[in-house]
Specification:
single chain; TIM Barrel; alpha/beta; globular; about 300 residues; 12 helices; eight-stranded parallel barrel
Amino acid sequence: MADGVDGPRWAGVVGLNPVLATVTPFTRNHRVDTGALGDYLAFLNESGVKAVLVNGTTGEFPALTVAERKTVLELTRARWPGQVITHIGTTAVGDAIELLDHAQNHADAVAAIAPYYFADPPEAGVREYFGALLGRAKVPLLVYNFPRHTQAVITPELLGGLAAKYPMLAGVKDSGTDRGTTRAYAVPGLSVFVGSDGAAAHIGELGAQGIVSGGGNPVPELPVRIAEALRGGDNAAALRWQSVFDDCRELRRRSGLTDIAFVKAALAERLPSFPGTVRPPLVAADAEQARDIRTYLREKVLPRIHKNRP
């Protein structure tokens, strides 16, 4: 493993480097496209990305079988030279344990979302779910807070209670929108990663160690350069690159597409053979939407990236 964030719990992700939440490429008949996955990982690596998170929300994990999630992890581990985090969360704790046991042979760390479908579950039940994983974990585990999808908030108190009992709890991936909660997660010994591209230049204000970026996939140079500027103490440069990243975020919002469909359509501008296929219930970009996205990137964003001028 590479040198990690200081602290006894975390030895997986290089400090202040962004983690890219990868998509899962599919062929036209909706099978995992192993060739496209390899080319895509090479592109991220050449762009300076050091760590990836596979089988997360951006990777369409709810649309993947347990066997497919194992396959995606194994393929990524074989082709990715940096840090690999894999998401193991499911609705069934037994499936999550199966994915954890598999991941411990292939990943540097794991992340687990709260069990979903049952709205507003008792906190004691959520604690038991995470305890079943943490008590078995031999690699660092990030609790994944995403209440929009789970309808269960990982409170700072719950996180702190788990941290006091389980030494393999490394921190939290926070994809919630309550920044007060984000700041409250930031306690000594735990790492906080924010699941918002808009926070890339602002992680210091949040007490976070970095972001987990889904929207950065077509433009990985942007989160990488923001992190480089922050490491060098050049906050002004970080904010300038953040403004370019925000332009991409606005394009994504205007497209009317889901984040995943947008990212896959945009990736085709960097990797012309990259498939835009998504699995139901998501819907892929149509030809006009894909053309508009690619044109904007080609004319408005990529020239600034290539000239290294935000």
